[in-house]
Amino acid sequence: MKVSLENKIEKLLRYRITWHIAFWCVFIFFDSLAANLDIFHRPFIYYFFLREMAYMIFAYLLTFLFYPALVARSRYFLYIIIGMVLVLLLSKSQVFSYRYYKLPGYNFMEIFQVIPFNFFFFTLITALKAGKDYYFRKEQIAADKQRRIELELEFLKSQVSPHFLFNTMNNLYGLSVVKSDLLPSLMLQLSDLLRYSLYETNQTFVPLEKEIKYIRNYIDLEKIRIGERLEVNIHFDEPAIDGIKIAPIILIVFVENSFKHSRNLLNEKIKIDFELSFKDDWIIFKTTNNFSPAEKDVNSGIGIENVRKRLAHLYPDEHTIEINTSDNIYTSVIRIKAR
């Protein structure tokens, strides 16, 4: 998304000259019709050339000088005053040149006859400039917002902790020493986990089954790290979620959070339950784990806060997060509208 927004802005800037040429071609065409341009009457051609040049100078003074300097700083009244002065000067120059070339009816040409159209031209240029600035501002805001979301995603992807990888590799090394039959499959799981984190999370949405496979690989590796102290139960209603997509690296944060609480359970049994179901077009993911009474700030975490921001952007009014701590049991329930 970010790329498309930036490309759109870059393309518009690249063809700015084309847009200006197109505008002036259309304007000159209709102005010539209104003025009844006589191509065989040389004085009239001179007048018309000076008239269009005056309009161009007038337009670019507004666009590149007075509008950025005044309107951008909310000095609207001064901008209007200067605009009216320019309209008056433009009108006087047109009357002067019309009389100078002694065009038809020049004796009766008065400034009040041209002021209304020139005021309309002032309003038109101002409106076009304001519209263009508003459009680019919206595009830039959208691009900046998307960039923040992507940076947060990069942060979440980096949440595969170096300590987790270090401990996992140590455990895998231990298995290799005793030539355990588990080693090849666990190495493959670690490879799949890292591949998913690095390459398959660049999309806005991914198949839910891939996210589940990523979670299962993570849990299997955590089983090695924790060992026999871990009692984990997994209940995934996988047949019901076929064909459903989800934003990547969302659910894994809550999985990691459950294992994080196990660090302070020194000699106690670590009990973690994961449940994923699908109901009425909603993905429901629930985690339950025990934690130490001495653990503080159990509800805090940058990862969960970033998930909240991503969900607000990707699933506005289509998600809920419930977190509860009671009797040393931590429970999180996240509901996401299926895509």
What key phrases describe this protein's structure?
single chain; 339 residues; alpha+beta; Heat Shock Protein 90; 2 domains; five-stranded mixed beta sheet; two-stranded antiparallel ribbon; 10 helices; 60% helix
Verbal overview:
This protein is α+β, with helices and mostly antiparallel strands and 339 residues long. It has two domains: 149 residues, no CATH class; 180 residues, Histidine kinase-like ATPase, C-terminal domain (Heat Shock Protein 90, 2-Layer Sandwich). The strands form two sheets. The protein has a five-stranded mixed beta sheet with strand order 2-4-5-7-6, covered by helices on one side. A two-stranded antiparallel ribbon has the order 1-3. Helix 1 packs antiparallel against helix 5, helix 3 packs across helix 5 and helix 6 packs across helix 8. It is rod-shaped, with a radius of gyration of 34 Å.
